[in-house]
Write a structure and sequence with these properties.
alpha+beta; three-stranded mixed beta sheet; 15% helix; 32% strand
C-alpha cells in the first residue's frame, strides 16, 4: 500500500520530466518572436510560441530528436535536443534582409 502511495505521488513529476521548453527571439532585435513554429523532426510533433516567444513540447520527444524552429521572414534553424541545454534553451533566429 505504501508503494502505491509513492507511485501516485511521484507519477506527475516523472511524466512532467519529458517536457521540452524554450524561448525564440530575434537575433537582430533580441525581441521574442510570437507564433514561431517549433517542430520535432523525428517524432513529428509541433507547437507555436506564445506572445513572449515561449514554447513547451510535452510529448514523446527523445534526446536524439532535432527541433526545427521557423517563422516567416526569418531563417529556419535546427538544433538537437541534446544541444538545447548548451544554448540555455534559447533560439535566436536571424531576420531575412530584403535586397
Amino acid at each position: 500500500m505504501k508503494k502505491l502511495f509513492y507511485i501516485i505521488i511521484l507519477l506527475p513529476f516523472i511524466t512532467n520530466a519529458q517536457t521540452t521548453n524554450g524561448i525564440v527571439k530575434s537575433q537582430n532585435s533580441n525581441l521574442p518572436i510570437e507564433d514561431a513554429n517549433i517542430y520535432a523532426l523525428r517524432t513529428q510533433i509541433g507547437t507555436l510560441t506564445n506572445n513572449n516567444g515561449e514554447f513547451s513540447l510535452n510529448s514523446k520527444i527523445k534526446t536524439n530528436d532535432t527541433l526545427q524552429v521557423s517563422h516567416i521572414g526569418f531563417t529556419t534553424r535546427r538544433i538537437a535536443i541534446k544541444d538545447l541545454k548548451k544554448s540555455n534553451y534559447l533560439f535566436c533566429l536571424k531576420k531575412i534582409l530584403k535586397p
